[in-house]
């Protein structure tokens, strides 16, 4: 089984940096495989709690090298909840790569464990007779401090349902649970890694100097 690892996070940073430099990313240093995957970007400033800046992936298995290359950019630039990440933000980013495994049909909306399982819910909107679906990665409910019911209700809102939520509707949900491995890397660790492996720290057009690693600046 493929597990999320440092090299996957490095490749996502390489891809984003190369995008802004108009270059191709360095070849990945991990083996090809086929898995569902997600890329999450968060931003840390002044020691504050990291804030989400983008999170997009696929629940369908796909080749992970092209998958991480695609979703590193899609999550950074085209998550509709956020403005695109700017080059000057890159030194403040942390990247989490997730590889999803162990898909199972849950018996009901409570048949899962907070902190262990990610969820996919599917249901018919009773007000519009349309199909709706949404997912949360395993770490989300635990990070938010949600109960199972709070998680399910939040997922229904995420899916676009604006009507009344009650236990009758919750019991009609089709719930798939899954697990994941993940790896998180901050830009400073990425820059140190690149410098040790390739001899020079990464440079980013438009980004400032940070933590001793000089980056190009277009002022």
TrEMBL record:
InterPro entries: AMMECR1, AMMECR1_dom_sf, AMMECR1_domain, AMMECR1_N. SUPFAM superfamilies: AMMECR1-like (SSF143447). Residues 1-194 form the AMMECR1 domain. PROSITE patterns: AMMECR1 (PS51112). This is AMMECR1 family. The lineage of its organism: Eukaryota, Viridiplantae, Streptophyta, Embryophyta, Tracheophyta.
């Amino acid at each position: 089984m493929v597990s999320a690892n440092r090299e996957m996070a490095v490749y996502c940073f390489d891809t984003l940096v190369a995008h802004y430099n108009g270059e191709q990313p360095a070849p990945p240093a991990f083996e090809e495989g086929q898995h569902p995957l997600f890329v999450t970007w968060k931003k840390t400033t002044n020691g504050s709690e990291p804030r989400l800046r983008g999170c997009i992936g696929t629940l369908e298995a796909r080749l992970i090298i092209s998958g991480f290359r695609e979703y590193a950019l899609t999550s950074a630039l085209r998550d509709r909840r956020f403005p695109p990440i700017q080059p000057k933000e890159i030194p403040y980013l942390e990247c989490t790569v997730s590889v999803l495994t162990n898909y199972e049909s849950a018996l009901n909306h409570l048949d899962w464990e907070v902190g262990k399982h990610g969820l996919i819910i599917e249901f018919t909107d009773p007000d519009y007779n349309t199909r709706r679906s949404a997912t949360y990665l395993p770490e989300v409910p635990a990070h938010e401090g949600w109960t199972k019911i709070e998680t399910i209700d939040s997922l229904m809102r995420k899916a676009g349902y604006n009507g009344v939520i009650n236990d009758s509707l919750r019991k009609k949900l089709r719930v798939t649970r899954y697990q994941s491995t993940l790896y998180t890397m901050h830009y400073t660790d990425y820059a140190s890694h690149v410098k040790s492996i390739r001899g020079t720290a990464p440079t980013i057009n438009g980004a400032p100097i940070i933590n001793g690693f000089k980056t190009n600046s277009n002022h």
